[in-house]
Amino acid sequence: MDREEVLRLIEAFERHTLGKRELIDALLSQEFTDIGHTKVDTGRIHRLGFPEVVYCRNKLTEEIFEIAEKLYEKNGFVLLTKASEEHFNALRQRFHDAVYHARASMISIGQWMQKRGRIAVLTGGTSDIPVAEEAAVTAELFGCNVNRIYDVGVAGLHRLLSHRVRIEGSNAIVAVAGMEGALPSVVGGLFGIPIIGVPTAVGYGAGLNGFTPLLTMLNSCAPGVSVVNIDNGFGAGYIASLINKKIEEARKNT
Questions:
Q1: Domain coordinates of the chain in residue numbers?
Q2: Is 118-253 CATH 3.40.50.150?
Q3: Backbone angles phi and psi of 21, in degrees to 5
Q4: What pTM was computed for the model?
């Protein structure tokens, strides 16, 4: 934010066209902390409503430690994805409230949001659970109650139908599947709820490490289906949290 923009905001505040809280949020939203190897986006929470989340793969443990310290200092909360047990063992020496979500390969530090609203996270098979857990843990930490409904793929459609009542009350659905990736399309034909498809690198050779289910989901004829990248459970959980947040805010204001 340059000098002219700051001046514009102050003048708007003086004219009473901008409230004190809005002024503070606007100023803080441009904040970042330069720690040399990383520019930590400490202002993201004021722009987007959710804090920056750290992708750990290919980062040094010391770098992750320093990034986590800055985020914790500003937000009292840190979420790390694609994290290892080695990362966790290093971090818990400093952060005693750190939790390792082993199946999701995630680390959370601190508590951030109270839960309201509900989403559902579905998987085609048990092999898809690690990606689904990344979505579920993200959504829980970002304020959603989560129904986990696993191993309900199209090879046994009756399994999915038996959970219909549980799914119908959701604000969003995350459908995680490998192999041919048909689950989101089937779910899209059953529920009038926003669906986020997550293709996984699960399956035999022609699955092409998730590329086949990705194309299946992108070519879905069911309306209401959107798709994230292969194995991107975090992205799906984040989108579901945004949808859930907006719906619950609207309900609160009506």
A1: 32-109, 118-253
A2: no
A3: -65, -40
A4: 0.85
